[in-house]
Amino acid sequence: MKKILVCLLALLSFSAISQVTGDTIVVKTFKYGSTTRDTAIQFPSNSLTYEKIIMRYNMRCKNGLVSTSSQRNLGCGEWDYSCNTYIADSSRMEIENLTAPSHIISNFTGTVFPYTTLQPYDYYNYAQTTVTLNSITSETQYTVGTGTSSVPNYLKANEKSGRSQLLYTAAELTSAGFTAGNIDGLLLDVANAGGNTNFFNLSIQNTTLTALNASTVVLTGFTNVYNANYSFVNGNNRIQFHTPFTWNGTDNILIDCSFTNSSPSTPIIFNGVSTTSVNALYTNNNYAVDFESNGHININSTFLSAINNSLTISFWAYGNKNLMPANTSVMYAYATNPNDRALNIHLPWSDNSVYFDCGFSAGGFDRANKVSTAANQGGQWNHWTFTKNVSSGWMRVYLNGTLWLIAGGKIKPISIMNMILGKDASLNNNYKGKINELTIWNREFVLADVKAIMNVPVTPSHPFYSDLVAYYKMDEGTGLIVNDTKKCYLNRNKYSLEFRQR
Questions:
Q1: 3-class secondary structure, 435
Q2: pLDDT at 196 (0 to 100)
Q3: Are 373 and 395 in contact (CB under 8 A)?
Q4: Which of 163, 274, 310, 474 could form a disulfide with 444 if both were Cys (CB 3.0 to 4.6 A apart)?
Q5: DSSP letters along 178-212, please?
Q6: Residue 440 lies in a domain
Q7: Domain identity same for 368 and 463
């Protein structure tokens, strides 16, 4: 009997420490003597499963006392009655209480989402028209101009893209022998070895213009006559039109050329003639600083002190339309205290308004603001100019060469010693887009002045060049420095800046 009794006791003892379905496990976590308020308690065994978890606790005040408003450490205070408990299992998900999907795919509403583990690529289809000239039965050629002056910038194939325009007068065409009717091609005289122009487009229109103006470039109304890759060589290059252009016999004609080279070639130099009027325009391949990656630039303050009674700031901006409207700060400036806002431009703020703050005194600043459209905010290049004249009290904003906003009675003085480009004084609210061709002047521009600098680089021949405080072309393309043609120097901050073509 004793042996049997001993075995039975041993069996009962074993059962007491084993867990079976329906058992309850009690785990003590905190006690009144615990020295920490936060802790993580592990469940007894990862091999067990639990039907129900009951968290039971009680609290007591130190020595049964309650703190007062004047004596905070007597016993319990208002914060001592807060008890937050959480259950976490990194390997499982509670299906019964699941209220959110395990994965969310933006802009997708279906139940099955196809995907690939391979590298995706974007392919673009471009239509080009190739003209094959098998033989010539008869044709008449007319030569307009016989000059040998070097024209190096008309097609700058050493850049990734380019666009140029050329104006021929009706008098020149008539003098050369042209009469009203179809023009089927061009012969262009190249003085050097030539170069490649991919996606070469040539378009023509009749026009009443007698000269070209960079501030009012004609961009519409053309008839496309050539659209294909073309390699220029030394001598005459024949551009055979896929569609004849009909000259009316009385108007001048405007020829528009453009190209896009993924890999730059060599510049093409033409033979040309000199004229007293502007009969040709060309563009420079340009870059811009992109602030979307949360970068900013601290502008050297040495030359900013020249600004006091009047101010003009102009630049090109290309906002990311997918991120607009948002809280943005294109530029922020102050004298000594960052909170004393001497200049701030929101382009826009999240309420769709463009805010132009300029001038500070008596704890406040002058402001002009207006609600902007989606096209004003992003998706295209826009030219913005902000001006203020303390004496007259007028603040003005010009958009793409037209007066967009005007506000009077703004006489707070301007004092600027520090300027941040791309963010505000707290280095927040970065601009969601690109900035290019930034100019800062210590004089107020009128509409004619704004139009004069919109589409052309500022050179020392500009009548107000002595009033130009700083000029940042932002055309470096690479590197860590943005240079000022007025010999200012911009230090780039620790965030990365990306240069992109405009």
A1: strand
A2: 92
A3: no
A4: 310
A5: --SEEEEEEEEEESSS--EEEEEEEEEEEE--SS-
A6: yes
A7: yes
Residue type, 93: M
pLDDT tens digit sequence for 307-319: 989 999 999 999 9
Tokens of 358: 């300029």
Q: Are 319 and 466 in a shared domain?
A: yes
Structural contact between residues 266 and 197, judged by C-beta atoms closer than 8 angstroms: no
Distance CA 408, CA 20 (A): 84
Report the domain count for the chain. Answer: 2
477 within 8 A of 499, measured Cβ to Cβ = yes
Which tens digit of pLDDT belongs to each residue from 466-479? Answer: 999 989 888 777 77
* Euclidean distance between CA atoms 298 and 331, whole angstroms: 10
Q: Residue 215 is part of a domain; what is its CATH number?
A: 2.60.120
Dihedral, CA of residue 436, residue 441, residue 443 and residue 447, to nearest 10: -20
Residue 11 belongs to a domain = no
Inform me whether the pLDDT recorded for 446 exceeds 70.
yes
Question: Hey, how many other C-beta atoms are within 10 angstroms of the C-beta on 380?
Answer: 13
Across all residues in the chain, what is the average pLDDT?
83
Query: 167: domain range?
Result: 149-285
Same domain, 456 and 358: yes
The predicted pLDDT at position 456 comes to 83
Query: Which of the residue ranges 154-163, 222-231, 421-430 would you say has the lowest mean pLDDT?
Result: 154-163
Q: Which two tokens stand for residue 248?
A: 């009316």
Number of DSSP helices (H) and strands (E) in the chain, helices first: 4, 25
Which of 418, 422, 425, 419 is closest to 296 using CA atoms?
Answer: 422
